[in-house]
Amino acid sequence: MTHFSALSLLKNALTGQKNWQAQWPDSQPKSEYDVVIVGAGGHGLGAAHYLAKEHGITNVAVIDKGWLGGGNTGRNTTIIRSNYLYDESAKLYDHAVDLWEGLSQDLNYNVMFSRRGVLMLAHNVHDVQSFQRHIHSNRLNGVDNRWLTPHEAKEFCPPLNISPNARYPVMGGALQMRAGTARHDAVAWGYARSASQRGVDIIQNCPVTAIRRGTDGSVEGVETAKGFIRAKKVAVSAAGHTSVVMDSAGVRMPLESYPLQALVSEPIKPIFPCVVMSNTVHAYISQSDKGELVIGSGTDQYTSYSQRGGLPLIEHTVAAICEIFPIFNRMRMLRKWGGIVDVTPDRSPILGTTPVPGLYVNCGWGTGGFKATPGAAHTLAWTIAKGTPHDINAPFTLDRFRTGRLIDEAAAAAVAH
Amino acid sequence: MLLVHCPYCDETLPELEFTYGGEAHIARPENPADKTDDEWRDFLFIRTNVKGPHFERWRHAHGCGRFFNAVRDTVSDRFLTTYKADAPRPDLAVLLADASMKEPSK
């Protein structure tokens, strides 16, 4: 496998870019693995990478019903931040940001992590109080986050309209400078390349139809479109389809799947220096390196697996964007799409062991799973390898919906969900 | 945008007039004090989240204001039926047979 470096770039430039090799093979399934991961998104491929790299477990298959990175990994708005209210969440998401910072070097693959800052706008008194509470809580947890006045916000993000007559007046904002964006496809590709280089099989276009359990209740393997694959351990990392897969193992999940939409504009010259989120009007915006404005919307009100979503949400989001950034009034939007997100009742993920021996799960990320990719994958790999929770993912059990120890980021508001 | 039929107003109207009310036919326990933690978890948090025909509640918020039930396919988002809140749960097999008769191509 090619090691990417300035030298390899130069060498290939001199030979007309004709000698690049495929970065991973399209594997066919073997009859048995130590670990099977269901879902080849960033989270699943990442778990395979850390299993191989940190735990020496390489007899692993990552199986996907479509192509790798074709689900929510390729559909999100690529925002990375960790300014969550509760201690448990702050630890988990900040662990992910720590890993993001070294990810390109770790993978020898440029994931284009850009610490351009995420600014969350406050439009009313409740927002101001809630964001300041977040900032205090974040500082106690060692998470970067600070308060900006409307003028400081305008200085940081010049296209912002801070007129007091605006429909959604800007009363200030919370800025996390350590936050930013990354190239979402490159994250899936980088993890896939690294995992496959270490011996992991990536099996695409192979739907997992059921999880098979033995007479003692523990996992035996997975039924797939390409036949039964035996496995000692199975980890489900299937986002919006987690309920469906887990149901086949007899585990009912506290999840509901909703469409979440995003859209991009025509590409323009660099104008937007950061990420701006507005939870009250539910819109967020950044500019990709290609020049498109990347705009995220909210979830539709009804559950669905359709990967579409309705136009009213897009209209609402774009109206809000035009109000906050009048400069974008005449921009044309090129594409919109939907992904299916699995939402838990407390809006925190479920990460770790399940009541079924040998079955692990990583789900419930709702509208914000991309940012956590390395952190979730890293701690899930630990849990799969050792069979016990990692310190960081331990609070995010499935059992919390029985014990009542919820991590209630939804009621904490001001977290974009 | 979905078009939703309100069984009280007997009109088919844009989704924006309605709010979604989650899964239907989840009955509150009659004797809450007798319930175990597992039963409370199932009642409060566990949902079928089915990929296919889904029994769900809607409210005609900007119309008559009343709750009613619906069966909608969560893959196509197509409504199979809507019915009044006190009507019994319809037989899914009958609904699916009706739907396939209306659409011979599927």
TrEMBL record, chain A:
Pfam families: DAO
GO MF term list: nucleotide binding; sarcosine oxidase activity
Keyword hit for Secreted: no
GO-annotated biological processes: tetrahydrofolate metabolic process
Cofactor(s) in the UniProt record: FMN; FAD
UniProt-listed PROSITE patterns: RHODANESE_3
Keywords: Cytoplasm, FAD, Flavoprotein, FMN, Nucleotide-binding, Oxidoreductase
Main location: cytoplasm
Location(s), subcellular: Cytoplasm
Catalytic activity: sarcosine + (6S)-5,6,7,8-tetrahydrofolate + O2 = (6R)-5,10-methylene-5,6,7,8-tetrahydrofolate + glycine + H2O2; sarcosine + O2 + H2O = formaldehyde + glycine + H2O2
Alphabetized InterPro entries for the sequence: FAD-dep_OxRdtase, FAD/NAD-bd_sf, Rhodanese-like_dom, SoxB
Residues annotated as domain Rhodanese: 35-79
GO CC, one annotated term: cytoplasm
Family per similarity comment: Belongs to the SoxB family.
NCBIfam families, per the entry: soxB
Name assigned to this protein: Sarcosine oxidase subunit beta
TrEMBL record, chain B:
Single Gene Ontology MF annotation: sarcosine oxidase activity
Gene3D superfamilies: Folate-binding superfamily
Pfam families the UniProt entry points to: SoxD (PF04267)
GO BP term (any one): tetrahydrofolate metabolic process
Cited InterPro entries: SoxD, SoxD_sf
Name used for this protein in its record: Sarcosine oxidase subunit delta family protein
